[in-house]
Amino acid sequence: MFHRFRYSVMDFSREALLAELELKDDIIEQLRKELDEYRVANSVRKTAISSEPDVQVKRQIIGKSDEAFETIGNALMCNSFLRNLDSIQIDKIASAMYPVHVTAGAIIIRQGELGSIMYVIQVNTVQEFQ
């Protein structure tokens, strides 16, 4: 009969097995610490180089309600690319956004196309087609 495990002369005493378990627990604890350190190191705010224009850019400020500002801010915070913006940056983006009313069935954006506009859906819903 074929045995799946081959045993050699080893100490299978209770004390030896408990010592082996303790060693494995220590290894697991060390791996958890390393994983936690990795997560902390990779969850901090990422930095990037950004070029500011040489001239002052005049941005149009679009008036909106506090509810609209909150909706836009919440949407920006849910976006993995934008969630690390500070409150001043979020306010600047929200101030420049303007309402767009879209009729039912209209195509807002096509997947894969280059875009230069960001949409925040405030009222109703949209359908996604691929």
Note the topology:
Layout: H1 14-43, H2 66-78, H3 87-96
Helix pairs in contact: 2-3
**Main sheet?**
none
C-alpha-based Rg, rounded:
28 Å
Runs with pLDDT <50, length 5+?
Answer: none
Average pLDDT score: 77
How much strand? under 5%
Helix/strand class: mainly alpha
Range of helix content: 40-55%
> What number of structural domains do the residues give?
2
Strand tally, please?
0
SSE order: HHH
SS field, number of helical segments: 3
Q: Quick one: overall form?
A: elongated
* Termini gap: 57 Å
Could you list some keywords that capture this structure?
130 residues; mainly alpha; 3 helices; cNMP-bd_dom_sf; RmlC-like_jellyroll; Cyclic nucleotide-binding domain-containing protein; cNMP-bd_dom
Question: What this model shows, in words?
Answer:
- The protein is an all-alpha fold.
- It has two domains: 32 residues; 64 residues, no CATH class.
- The protein is built from three helices and no strands.
- Helix 2 crosses helix 3.
Outline of the structure:
With 130 residues, this protein is an all-alpha fold. Helix content is 41%, strand content 0%. It contains 3 helices and no strands.
